[in-house]
Design goal:
The chain is mostly helical. It is built from six helices and five strands, in the order αββαββααβαα.
Amino acid sequence: MGRAPLAALLAVYPSYYVGRRAPPYCAYQGGYEGLKVNCIDVLSSAYSRLYSLSLDMLATLWSSLDICVSLVMCLSPWALVRRAAHAASVAWSSIGAAFVPYLVYLEVFRIRAIRVYCTTTHVMILANFWVVLYESVSRGSSLRALLVGTRSM
């Protein structure tokens, strides 16, 4: 559960700076084959919005829902609710992990700029996916044991 609040913070913090000034660690003068580190290029690109929603807002919504599902999964006294929340967590983290390659593609090949905060959030979303997947299949997982009802946390 500790991974989602940081991802939400990373999504909200830089959105304050849009149209003002670059956040810290946002611009790097060097680059590699035309690829640069520049948040403003990413945030002001045509790819920074999905319909009328900014990708920052979507990342915040994704992380917020992930927090809610994690809380339900860990705090619910009912096994059926925990199992349903776990299934929702697997599905939600899979959606996030499936969306990351598209976002990386946009940054690297379309915008030709990388945003440090986006990259960090991508890593956190993929880590979230792998943790959820591990908790789902590992026989030694205390969460899996709680979900199947063999022992309590």
